[in-house]
Automatic annotation (TrEMBL):
A Pfam family reported for this protein in Swiss-Prot or TrEMBL: CLP_protease
Catalyzed reactions per annotation: Hydrolysis of proteins to small peptides in the presence of ATP and magnesium. alpha-casein is the usual test substrate. In the absence of ATP, only oligopeptides shorter than five residues are hydrolyzed (such as succinyl-Leu-Tyr-|-NHMec, and Leu-Tyr-Leu-|-Tyr-Trp, in which cleavage of the -Tyr-|-Leu- and -Tyr-|-Trp bonds also occurs)
Keyword tags: Hydrolase, Plastid, Protease, Serine protease
UniProt superkingdom: Eukaryota
Record's protein name: ATP-dependent Clp protease proteolytic subunit
Organism: Canna indica (Indian-shot)
Length: 107
């Protein structure tokens, strides 16, 4: 499964387990979209059961690095590494659908 996104709307979607392939795709997308516009918020829609720690940390660090705020939205499931990515959104720009489920992992 490949990452699908809309460049014009500055949004991306993570709907699978976080692994090195999805991390590289999201990394490239976040860097590209932030270069396109420093002021327009980026949106990361999450529906993920989790995944690899190192791959998730690459995405998380990139979210913190890019100049625009990254808004995170939990569509259905944000477990394990997915929950860390959800929490990595900009302050006051993290949200979840009413029936979305989150499984927090404390390290």
């Amino acid at each position: 499964m490949h990452l699908e996104f809309k460049v014009k709307s500055s949004s991306s979607f993570s709907g699978q387990e976080v692994d090195s392939e999805i991390a590289n795709q999201l990394l490239a997308l976040l860097l590209y979209l932030s270069a396109e516009s420093y002021t327009r918020d980026l949106y990361l829609f999450i529906n993920s059961p989790g995944g690899w720690v190192m791959s998730g940390m690459v995405i998380y660090d990139t979210m913190q690095y890019v100049p625009p705020d990254v808004r995170t939205i939990d569509l259905g499931l944000a477990a394990s590494m997915g929950s860390l990515l959800l929490a990595g959104g900009a302050k006051n720009k993290r949200s979840a659908f009413p029936h979305a489920w989150r499984q927090w992992v404390f390290i």
